[in-house]
Amino acid sequence: MYTNSGVKSLQITDVQMVGVHDGEPAYFTLKVTDFTTGNVLWSKTFTEDVKGRSWDVSNVVPGRTYQVIIESHTNNDTDGGFWLTVDGYAYQ
Predict the structure, then answer these.
(1) How far is CA 19 from CA 14, 46, 51, 72, 86, in A?
(2) What number is the average pLDDT over the span 12-23?
(3) 79 with 15: CB under 8 angstroms?
(4) What DSSP state is assigned to residue 65?
């Protein structure tokens, strides 16, 4: 995602990440990194299924490109996704 001038925050909303099989919950890290430097701006690790949670990420720099990454820590089959709200534009 790219942040427009004056932007200081973004929102990651309606995060859904669940294990597909019984007894195999999601175990993952959701993080925002600076696309150019790779530095982690924000990170949160989950050891269980997540349904409908949201976070505000502050300390965003205007005019920068960021990545939102879901990094799995197991080989469990999972399903889910998230929405982004930012003054700028997001692309996949």
Answers:
(1) 16, 12, 11, 11, 28
(2) 94
(3) no
(4) B
State the average pLDDT over residues 47-73. 94
Q: Which residues contact 44 (CB under 8 A, 6 or more apart)?
A: 29, 30, 31, 55
In whole angstroms, give the CA distance from residue 74 to residue 90.
28
Q: Which of the 8 DSSP states describes residue 76?
A: -
Q: What pTM was estimated for this model as a whole?
A: 0.87
Q: Would the CA dihedral through 48, 53, 59, 63 be positive or negative?
A: positive
Q: For residue 31, give the nearest of 4, 6, 61, 55 by alpha carbon.
A: 55
Dihedral (CA of 9, 68, 15, 50) sign:
negative
Q: What confidence category does residue 90 fall into, taking pLDDT thresholds of 50, 70 and 90?
A: confident
The string of DSSP codes covering 5-22 is: TT---EEEEEEEEEESST
Q: What pLDDT, on the 0 to 100 scale, is given for residue 55?
A: 95
